[in-house]
Amino acid sequence: MIGKLLKKELRLCMHPMLPASLLLSALLLAPNYPYAIMYFYLTLGIFFTGLTRRENHDVLFTCMLPVKKEQIVTAQILFAVIAELLQMLIALPLFVLHRHLISVPNAAGMEANIVLLAEGFLIYGVFHLVYFVGLFRDTDKVGVNFLKAGAVVFLLIFAELACTYAVPFARDILDTPDPQYLGVKLLFALICLGLYCVFTIVSVKLAQKRFGNTDIR
Amino acid sequence: MSVILEVENLCKFYPSFRLEGVSFTLRAGTITGFVGRNGAGKSTTLYALLSLVQPDAGNILYRGENIRGREAVFKQRVGFVSAGVSFYAKQKLHRITDVVKTFYGEWNDTLYRRYMQAFALDGNQVFEKLSNGMKIKFALALALSHNAELLILDEPTGGLDPVSREELAEILLDLAGQGKAVLFSTHIISDLDRIADRILYIKNGRILADDTLQGFTDAYRLVQYQTLTEPQRKKIIGELRLKDGYSALIKAADAADFGMPSVCAGAEDIMVHIEKERA
User: Which of A39, A184, B182, B189 is the most buried (most CB within 10 A)?
Assistant: First the structure.
């Protein structure tokens, strides 16, 4: 059933901004750019898709189909997760290309390295917690919940930017081209990936609980 | 006729509205008109049937089994048509259908094509370009192509011209003839005069009448007058002002000794007077 709901998301709900934002991973090839912004662009795509759902009365329509309410929540969050993983997949060869094309250090935040990739998972995990858990309390309030989640995403991006200047561990170890300090970076990446999984699972559970108690009118 | 759906003592409490003790039965091959003025509780009841609204109390039994926890199975056998809400307005009909049909185990493509042809619908049409009548017909085509045995229509005639309303009435009669149960919510009672087997009348969240259409109309008579005596006034239900006097309902049992000629009341007359009485 989740597969069918994902097909519905893809064919009826997805806003063109979502695939377009995946292509913005190409910003990794720009020198001196705050690369973490590309994660924000994808959350914008998720937000626009949320707007499309609301304008098309998608939740009411889907609730009338022979599905359980919790499956609707799972499918919407899973759709976002697939987009995020797709972005990471697209970004991987660009990270490699970046290493070969751009030799100057990034003056605008984190290098295009494994830490940047891991940071994306952390950002998306937090985004799920704020956006989806808020959204499934009242599925009409797409904008307010994105405003909150978007603010948190920006806060994380600015925190990363500031750390690469002010925190010695971030500046001297994490913000270095790969494969320098690879062990530490991999450990950081694992922690971020773990947090992504935990935050996403918690988001699904909380959102299901809230949506289950919500009347659809 | 077999019982398809039983609703027992359904309750839903909102701060400004209460749905209380709603009970009724829907049988195969019958059309039930669910009437009441706007805000009476019709949509809340229908949405509760579809688990869109969580009831605070009561049971909904489909073929004798409680649907709680089995909503997805129940919805396989239900077709829901809600007028006034545009789903996926910019999408072509065939694109919506391609998605919808995957959810139903008993989807029948041949049947779907037959309904699309009968309703003069083209899959390449964009949903928002359809007239209101065509939108309802498309929703009906979707609802009927998965072999639903219970059809729930939420105010489907709102915004339809008289010819389209007549067409819809004929479609519903056909469906009832095929053994399907139809629950038809409306505040335009004249839509039901020709097709409804039963009338469910809801007011302020409570069922006031659950009867055959004939039984419902036979229970009341209509009187017109300019003045009434005090004993007569005690017997009237709802008084409407007319150009040259007043009209009111009386119970059919009171007609013989009311002391004034009375005429048969239509379902719409009854609803209008009852709403007036207790407003």
Answer: A39
- The residue among B94, B103, B135 with the most chain A CBs within 10 A of its CB, best to mutate, is B103
Q: What amino acid occupies position A169?
A: F
Which residue on chain A is closest to B53 by alpha carbon?
A215
Q: Of how many residues is chain A composed?
A: 217
Which helix (H) or strand (E) segment holds residue B240: the answer is strand B236-242
Identify the residue whose tokens are 């219970």. Answer: B150
- Of B232, B257, B237, nearest in space to B248 by CA: B237
Q: Is residue B131 located within the same domain as residue B267?
A: no
Q: How far is A12 from chain B (nearest CA, A)?
A: 7
Chain A residue at shortest CA distance from B84 = A57
Chain segment B158-171, per-residue pLDDT in tens: 767 788 788 888 88
Give the residue carrying structure tokens 């919500």.
A214
Q: What is the pTM of this model?
A: 0.84
Same domain, B11 and B130: yes
**What is the DSSP-derived secondary structure letter of residue B126?**
B
pLDDT tens for A186-217 read 999 999 999 999 999 999 999 999 998 888 87
Range of the domain at B246: 219-275
Pick the closest to residue A7 from A93, A65, A90, A84 (CA basis): A65
Which of B50, B75, B99 minimises the CB distance to A8? B99
Give residue-wise pLDDT tens across range A105-158: 887 888 888 999 999 999 999 999 999 999 999 889 999 999 999 999 999 999
Size (chain B), residues: 279
Side chain identity, residue A17: M
Look at B186 and A143; give whichever has higher pLDDT.
A143
Chain B residues near residue A216 by CB distance under 8 angstroms: 47, 52-53
Q: How far is B239 from chain A (nearest CA, A)?
A: 35
pLDDT(A171) > 60: yes
B142 and B271 belong to one structural domain: no
Number of domains chain B contains? 2
Q: Would you state the pLDDT for residue B159?
A: 66
For chain A, report the end-to-end CA distance as a whole number of angstroms: 23
CB < 8 Å to B126, chain A: none
